[in-house]
């Protein structure tokens, strides 16, 4: 995953990363979805997709989903590796909270060289996950991820360990902090409210942990590695 002599622009990197992240969540990569994710207008997305297609990074037809080409995927994985290594470095070496890194990492991921990122990774012991449990692609683009399930899909009686908070939304992370919930905690599903209501869960030791009601939106971004 060496650095290109002519580095892509920030906009190009943001788009290929966004396409990858939406596809990773099994979200249809439409113009509307990208516009919402990137907080831009649909017309801007359409123009950028045409540019990315001309660059050989994206495959897209009007009114259809977009997908990364092999070249686009390599670029997306390089950007994501850079971002997630930086986030972990900020938390591990510079004392940032896991809810504080998004803004800093958003700037640094476009400024840091691949050499700097690889030295950060080496300093961290070549980690496989970032502070939110998101897998870090290796230098070769390979991802070793642990099998897990979204909390929203689990039935009462399921137990496991919280291993990932998808997307690292600072508001979500601050809420989890206020609940005393962190990666590595044991989670037991006690019940589910009907019609898409809250998941009732116990976080912590059996019969001793704290009971919480997590709404569907929150349960959709928490991944559990089942016992």
Q: State the fourth-level CATH superfamily of the largest domain.
A: Winged helix-like DNA-binding domain superfamily/Winged helix DNA-binding domain
User: Would you identify the CATH architecture of the largest domain?
Assistant: Orthogonal Bundle
| Main sheet: strand order | 3-8-4-5-6-7
Computed Rg: 19 Å
Q: Helical amount among residues, as a percent range?
A: 40-55%
Number of strands: 8
Which spans of ≥5 residues are poorly predicted at pLDDT below 50?
none
What key phrases describe this protein's structure?
Arc Repressor Mutant, subunit A, SH3 type barrels, two-stranded antiparallel ribbon, alpha+beta
Can you give a write-up of this model?
β5 (186-192) and β6 form a beta hairpin. This protein has 227 residues and is α+β, with helices and mostly antiparallel strands. The chain has helices at residues 10-24, 31-38, 42-54, 70-94, 101-111, 114-123, 170-179, 216-219, and strands spanning 58-59, 67-68, 149-150, 159-165, 186-192, 199-203, 210-214, 222-226. It has two domains: 1-145, Winged helix-like DNA-binding domain superfamily/Winged helix DNA-binding domain (Arc Repressor Mutant, subunit A), CATH 1.10.10.10; 149-226, Ferrous iron transport protein A (FeoA) (SH3 type barrels, Roll).
